[in-house]
């Protein structure tokens, strides 16, 4: 704001405002003096000040600031002009804080730890402020504060998903989003060096949160989203507050150097009031065992559809499965569809249709994957469940949703048939979608009902026709037919249909 203050008389007090410029005239000095103060204070604390003292009262001119030269009206205009130039310059110099970007050569050399906290709020979703334990910027302690903590950065680049995640979080709730930028520390080609800094990052975050609490924030309003190593950093912070943080979400918590570690050396369910975890790369970069109150396993927690299967896929071969957890979480913040999971003891039991009670009988709610997973917290407390594993399948690309149906088949073949089936659905407009159930051969005996879980990429609101194709999987053998007395389709994703 540009403020021009002109002291003419002690009784004068006039305020004029136009746009972002405010001109105030008043008098705080003797009636015989005229005081001119031109100042500018920008929203990023860049200040420019200019002052002059002169007398035009009763026709007498006095010197300016004790000098011998008189201050004319031309000089007055000059000072106002300089003040306006200061306004323009300060606005032009306004800078938004950005995530630290380092070159690959920096990652090869390695960097010392430097943690920067970038605050985003609904007031300015695209421009971050640097905050710390002494400067909080626009952070409101009465709102939820969500920390987003990245993991190992072997190339030194910024995470591609970070900006999308920040914007998506702010779009669903009015909150403070604090990006924990520890790229100087995480950027190294030596994984051990990055993992060794995780506790130091946690200590820095605790210092900041302590100040938030002193300002009136609540631990229940603290939410941490940790990716890879960031998940364990979140756990270390939660442990220092005796598990009183509101929530921690672990997105494929890092496995190397953390697998088989005791709870105090990794993320665990006691680190927050509610801990939810998505495992998407258990056989490589992710953690193998359950870590939360509820652990989600997309596609069994191993190879993710759409990710390269060979090294010829380049860098995506190494990181696609690991990062899929982040993109699944992102999808949950968008309105395309809700990704539903099914509590189960194993992925095999889920695929065989043994774990769909939450979708069929409404005896329990089906947990949602991602941001809204905390809706499951009340059910966990009600049933006194210490830990739950939940499985689901996804499509190859966003929004990743699959639409589940239970298929009941009663055959009447004289001889036993063993093989896989493909279910095809059609609606009255000619739209089709199909599901191949071939994870393991199904056995069909005469008059014995077989129930199978079918997963479709497309949601047809009104199914007009259902067809079934049976295959033994044999190339050279005879082509057996499967004769069906009855086939029933039961929707799980939309059970009310």
TrEMBL record:
One GO BP: phosphatidic acid biosynthetic process
GO CC, alphabetical: extracellular space; plasma membrane
Major location (coarse): membrane
Protein name per UniProt: Lipase member H
Family according to the record: Belongs to the AB hydrolase superfamily. Lipase family.
Binding site for Ca(2+): 266, 268, 271
Lipase domain mapped to chain residues: 111-400
InterPro entries: AB_hydrolase_fold, Lipase, Lipase_LIPH, Lipase_N, TAG_lipase
Keywords for the protein's UniProt record, in alphabetical order: Calcium, Cell membrane, Disulfide bond, Glycoprotein, Hydrolase, Lipid degradation, Lipid metabolism, Membrane, Metal-binding, Secreted, Signal
């Amino acid at each position: 704001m540009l403020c021009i203050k002109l002291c003419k008389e002690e009784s004068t007090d006039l305020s004029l405002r136009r746009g972002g410029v405010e001109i105030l005239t008043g008098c705080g000095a003797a009636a015989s003096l005229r005081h001119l103060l031109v100042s500018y204070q920008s929203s990023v604390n860049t200040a420019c000040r200019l002052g002059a003292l002169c007398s035009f009262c009763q026709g007498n001119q006095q010197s300016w600031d004790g000098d011998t030269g008189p201050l004319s009206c031309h000089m007055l205009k000059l000072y106002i002009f300089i003040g306006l130039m200061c306004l323009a310059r300060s606005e032009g110099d306004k800078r938004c804080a950005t995530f630290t970007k380092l070159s690959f050569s920096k990652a090869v050399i390695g960097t010392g730890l430097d943690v920067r906290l970038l605050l985003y709020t609904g007031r300015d979703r695209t421009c971050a402020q640097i905050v710390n334990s002494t400067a909080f910027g626009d952070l409101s302690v009465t709102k939820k504060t969500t920390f987003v903590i990245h993991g190992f950065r072997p190339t030194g680049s910024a995470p591609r998903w970070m900006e999308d995640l920040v914007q998506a979080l702010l779009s669903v709730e009015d909150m403070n989003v604090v990006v924990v930028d520890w790229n100087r520390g995480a950027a190294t080609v030596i994984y051990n060096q990055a993992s060794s800094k995780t506790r130091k990052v946690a200590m820095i975050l605790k210092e900041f949160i302590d100040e938030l609490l002193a300002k009136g924030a609540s631990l229940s309003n603290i939410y941490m989203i940790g990716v890879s190593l960031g998940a364990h950093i979140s756990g270390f912070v939660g442990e220092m507050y005796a598990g009183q943080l509101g929530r921690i979400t672990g997105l494929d918590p890092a496995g190397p150097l953390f697998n088989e570690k005791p709870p105090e050396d990794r993320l665990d369910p006691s680190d927050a009031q509610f801990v939810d975890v998505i495992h998407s790369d258990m056989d490589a970069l992710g953690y193998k065992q359950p870590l939360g109150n509820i652990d989600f396993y997309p596609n069994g927690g191993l190879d993710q559809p759409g990710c390269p299967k060979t090294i010829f896929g380049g860098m995506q071969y190494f990181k696609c499965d690991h990062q899929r957890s982040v993109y699944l979480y992102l999808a949950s913040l968008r309105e395309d569809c809700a990704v539903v999971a099914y509590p189960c003891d194993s992925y095999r039991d889920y695929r065989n249709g043994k774990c769909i009670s939450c979708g069929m009988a409404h005896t329990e709610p089906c947990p949602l994957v991602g941001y809204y997973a905390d809706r499951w917290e009340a059910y966990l407390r009600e049933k006194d469940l210490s830990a739950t594993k939940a499985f689901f399948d996804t499509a190859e690309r966003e929004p990743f949703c699959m639409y589940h149906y239970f298929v009941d088949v009663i055959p009447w073949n004289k001889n036993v048939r063993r093989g896989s089936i493909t279910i095809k659905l059609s609606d009255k407009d000619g739209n089709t979608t199909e599901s191949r159930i071939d994870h393991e051969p199904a056995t069909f005996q005469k008059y014995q009902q077989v129930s199978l879980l079918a997963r479709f990429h497309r949601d047809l609101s009104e199914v007009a026709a259902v067809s079934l194709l049976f295959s033994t999987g044999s190339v050279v053998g005879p082509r057996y037919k499967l004769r069906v007395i009855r086939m029933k389709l039961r929707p799980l994703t939309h059970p009310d249909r």
